[in-house]
Structure formats: structure tokens, C-alpha cells
Request: fold
Amino acid sequence: MFTIQEKLLKRISIIIIIIGILSLFLISQEISTDVTKKIDEIQVEQNVKIQGIVEKYTPKEKVTFLEIDAITYSPQKVVLFNDENIYIKKGDFVELIGYVEEYQGQKEIIANKITIK
Reply:
């Protein structure tokens, strides 16, 4: 049989669990679920992190142009300056870190780091 202290401890634990679940529910109502952003909404030189699938890959001598179907942003044009050989192909799932830059009146992302997942 349970002692009085064990019953009290059990009741306190259940109350804390219920309060915790209710708190998480209330906090989740405040979180925005609209994660898809347009690049036009992002300020120039703001850092971004994007994950998505490479839809188009255009390598040049010193630069590579990518079009990413991103999870967290609408489809993006990405510029990657080549320091070494890049081994990316269409269909790869990538994560990139970079910043927004404006070129000829349009915003694009300049990638600092890209990782194939």
C-alpha cells in the first residue's frame, strides 16, 4: 500500500504534469506556423539558413548558381563563389548558410557554407 507521503507526491507530480502540458499548449498557440518566407521580406545583408532540394545547378569558372526549392523559404536563387570543386547535383538535399544581397534590382542569397545532407 501507498503511504500518505507517496500519495501526496503522486498527486503533486500529476498536477505539475498537467500544468506543464497546459503551458506548452498555450505557448504553442503563440508560435507562428508560417515558416515560408519570401526573399523580398528579408533585409539586405541579413544572415539566412536554408534547407532544400537543388532544382537547378549551373557551375561556372569561379561561381556556381543554384536554384533551391527551400523548406523554410520560397524557392531561392543562390550564388556560391567557388574556392574549390563543388560536388552538387540536381536533386541533392542541401543546407546552406549565407546572406541576402541585391544584384541588378533583385535579391539573391550569397552562400558562405553549403552542406549536402
Observations:
- Residues 4-30 form the longest helix (27 residues).
